[in-house]
Every structure is written in C-alpha cells, then in structure tokens.
Specification:
Elements: H1 2-8, H2 10-40, H3 42-69, H4 71-88, H5 90-107, H6 109-115, H7 120-129, H8 138-150, H9 155-158, E1 160-161, E2 168-169, H10 174-184, E3 188-193, E4 195-204, H11 205-217, E5 238-240, H12 245-254, E6 259-263, E7 269-274, H13 275-283, E8 297-301, E9 304-308, H14 313-319, H15 332-340, E10 351-352, E11 355-362, E12 367-373
Parallel strand pairs: 2-3, 5-6
Antiparallel strand pairs: 1-7, 3-4, 6-7, 8-9, 9-12, 10-11, 11-12
Helix pairs in contact: 2-3, 2-4, 2-5, 3-4, 7-8, 10-11
Length: 386
C-alpha cells in the first residue's frame, strides 16, 4: 500500500530520496572528517578520512545496483521508511518540489513534452536491460519482442513456401479432392492451372462438401461441377512478396480474407499466407484442430529427435534449447544444405558442434526428415510432440 502511495506522488518520493541522500553524505563527511582531524591531526586525519570514504562510495554503488536489479522487492522493504522520511522532511520537500515545478513550467515545458515520447529503440532497451529481476514473464518479453519485429516482416518471411503446400489441379474430380481434403484436414486448399506457380482459385471445405451433396442428388450434373473448377472460389487475394506484415494484416481484415497467395515480381505464386501465420508472428505457434496432422518433431528416446526438415531454426533453438547458428536460411533443411554446400543424400551423417544429424528422408530438391542426436550431457525438454 505504501509503494502505491509513493508511486502516485513520484515528486515527493524523488525529493525525499535526494534530500535524505545529500544530508547523509554532508553530515557524515563533515562530522567524520572533523572527528578524524581532531584525534589524528590534520595530515593523518585527512588521509584516514579519504581511506574511509572510498569504500563507502563502493557500498553506495553496490546498494544502488541491488535496487536496480530487484526494484519491486526493495521498494516494498523501504517504502515505510521513505514514507516516514517524507513526513519528517515535509516542509523542505514541499519547498523544493514547488521550485522544481515552477522551473520546469517556465523554462522546459515544451522540451519535457517532446522528450516524454518513448521511441521504439528506447522500449527495446528497457525490455532487454531493465526487466531483469522484475515480474515480467519470459513469454511476455518474447511477445513484446515479436511486436517490435512485426513491422519489419514481409509476406515472403511469413508465408508457407509453394514447395511445402498441398495444392490441387483444377481438373481433379471432386471425389478425389474430397479424399485429399479428408487426409490433410485443411479448410482451404489452393487450386492451380497447369502448374503450381499459377494459382487460380481456393477450394473451401464447405463448398466441396456442398458440391458432393448436390452431385449425389443429381448424378447427371454438369461436367464442370464434377471437377474442382466447378466449386472453387476464383476471387483469389494476391499479395506481393514484399508487402509488409502490418498493412497485409489490415488488408486481410478489411476484405475478410483468411488466405492470400504470395506472388513474386513476375506474377508467379511463391507461397501462401494466412491470418494464422500472421498471428503466430506475435503470439507464437497456434495449434488448431484442422492443422494438427503434421508434427514438426518427435522425441524418439532421450537425446534423439526426429525433426521435420521445414522446422524453423528459431523454433528448434527455443524449444529444444539448442544453439544452431542463424544464416541465409530459415529451416533445419536449409541449415544442413548450407553446411554441406549441396543437398545431402539419405543416410548421410553430418556433424555440427557435437550434434549428429542423420538424413532420414530427402529427395533431389529438399530434406524432409532428420534424426538429430544431441550430446549425452545436454538436457532436453520432456515434450514428445509438437
């Protein structure tokens, strides 16, 4: 309760602290030096006074460092003393506070208003340097850090690449498409014409289900209705790969779009981005019922993990407590390809910093699965699947 009162009146708190600190230093210096000179003489007394005050200075620095690292805990412990001191020094505190307010209002009002705005860089510094020992959780720090980096992200960084997508040709029969949708458990699947780089529509699960019911009722339906082209939505939301995440999110909200097709400067599709992908950049991974089919990693035995080649290096370092370096890649597969200078073959066993990577599944274009064997002395999380 006392801490709350002091926080409501910061001027009184600062004035009391300054008055108490300066009075203590002045009184201690004056009396101590006088007594030492009286007992030991001028020359020896000054020398002893210097030797006594020097460690006192270090004690003050240590105490201030403790308060800086544990502000909440120390504030609770000294709040009653500060409150009592503010009452004792009330006349002097009131006089100093009044003079300070007048000087600020007359001379520096505009400057103070301008300096009251905190920049992004200032907030980053506070988040990293000033929250140690505070009650701010690690997850909260991570979320705030993601918010800072969100404005710099582009659709290219957020998207799921075209090589990792499940896409359907527009000529596919709806019965076959239904089997694919049931197996993948996706609500929306891109539809392409001729090549996956030419996305021409989005197939929605409920549209497909509705078409299947209609076809069962009228077996001799139109030929176009028997294929994906007859039930896909052609109003595709195309997104340039250089579009920033913030404007992209606002556009998708305004147009009520859940999925966008990311295209390069030549108009070819390079991936898709969803509202969920954008949200995960702020709050972290989101597991929804229809996209839990693919597991990014699985714990086999202690110290051994079977990891999807598309799992991001940042996620591996965060979840499995590793220190894989960052570079011109985002995934485990990209890391291993850069280390080898080529696409490793199945059953190859590259090593890095004591960790063994066994390529379990790979083709000519990418690495699909990797068995990672960590050093035995390294402790790993107990989570088995993500």
């Amino acid at each position: 309760m006392q801490v709350v009162k002091l926080k409501e009146h910061p001027g009184w708190f600062i004035s009391t602290a300054l008055i108490g600190t300066n009075l203590a230093i002045i009184i201690a210096s004056t009396l101590g030096t006088g007594l030492l000179i009286q007992y030991f003489g001028i020359q020896r007394g000054e020398q002893i006074a210097f030797l006594v005050m020097l460690p006192t200075l270090f004690v003050i620095i240590i105490i201030r460092s403790i308060f800086q690292h544990y502000p909440e805990l120390m504030a609770i412990k000294v709040a009653h003393f500060i409150r009592f001191s503010s009452l004792v020094f009330y006349p002097l505190t009131y006089f100093i506070a009044a003079i300070s307010r007048g000087a600020v209002n007359i001379s520096f009002d505009q400057k103070v208003k301008q300096s009251s705005y905190i920049t992004k860089e200032g907030l980053k510094y506070i988040l990293v340097e000033k929250t140690e020992g505070s009650d701010i959780l690690t997850t909260e720090k991570e979320m705030v850090s993601r918010v800072f980096g969100f404005s710099e992200l582009t659709a290219e960084k957020i998207m799921v690449p075209i090589s990792a997508l499940t896409a359907l040709p527009q000529t596919m029969k709806i019965e076959e498409a239904a089997r694919v949708v049931a197996a993948k458990k996706y609500m929306r699947i891109p539809v392409y014409s001729d090549t996956v780089y030419n996305i021409v529509g989005i197939l929605h699960y409920f549209d497909l289900l509705d078409m299947l019911l209609k076809q069962q009722q009228t077996p001799a339906g139109a030929s176009s209705a028997a294929t994906v082209a007859g039930c896909m939505r052609t109003d595709v939301f195309y997104v340039p790969e250089t579009k920033k995440a913030g404007p992209l999110l606002m556009d998708m909200q305004r147009k009520h779009e859940h999925m966008g097709v990311v295209v390069d400067e030549y108009g070819g599709a390079v991936g898709i981005v969803t509202m969920e992908d954008i949200g995960e950049e702020i709050v972290g991974s989101i597991d929804e019922q229809y996209n839990k089919g693919e597991k990014l990693y699985k714990k086999m035995v202690p110290g051994r993990y079977l990891i999807n080649g598309r799992m991001k290096i940042d996620d591996i370092n965060q979840i499995l407590l590793t220190k894989l370096p960052e570079g011109n890649y985002e995934t485990l597969g990209g890391f291993l390809i850069q280390q080898a200078g080529r696409i490793p073959l199945s059953r190859e066993r590259p090593d890095f910093d004591g960790t063994t990577f066994i390529i379990e599944n790979a083709d000519q274009k990418s690495i699909r699965e990797v068995l990672v064997i960590f050093p035995p002395q390294v402790e790993r999380p107990q989570t088995q699947m993500v």
